[in-house]
Design goal:
CATH topology: OB fold (Dihydrolipoamide Acetyltransferase, E2P)
Order of helices and strands: HEEEEE
CATH class: Mainly Beta
Shape: globular
Oligomer: single chain
CATH architecture: Beta Barrel
CATH superfamily: Nucleic acid-binding proteins
Strand content: over 45%
Largest sheet: 5 strands, mixed, barrel
Radius of gyration: 16 Å
Helix content: under 10%
Strand order of the largest sheet: 1-2-3-5-4
Distance between the termini: 49 Å
């Protein structure tokens, strides 16, 4: 029974990439996800960014790292993302 459930493919969850801007809190990182999109009426490309709070269980990520996070169940009031992997470590 358990083998049948584990073999079923889970639906893909949202993935985001961003740069860590804060790692001051325990087991939590704060990252910015920047993106560009055209203005709905005028068409000019506008840069936007969102701030995500992610769960980092082992405190692996540090400020400046490029990381990938995945959506998950709410862990706290602000944390609904978890760290998947560190894509690139910061220099220094």
């Amino acid at each position: 029974m358990a083998a049948e459930q584990s073999s079923e493919k889970r639906s893909s969850r949202r993935l985001r990439q961003g740069v860590v801007v804060s790692d001051a809190r325990d087991k939590t990182i704060k990252l910015t996800n920047s993106y560009s999109k055209p203005h709905p009426k005028y068409g000019k490309i506008i840069r936007r960014s969102t701030t995500l709070h992610a769960h980092d269980a082992n405190n692996e990520a540090h400020v400046g790292d490029l990381v990938e996070v995945m959506a998950c169940r709410p862990i706290s009031k602000q944390k609904s993302w978890r760290l998947v992997r560190i894509i690139q470590k910061s220099e220094g």
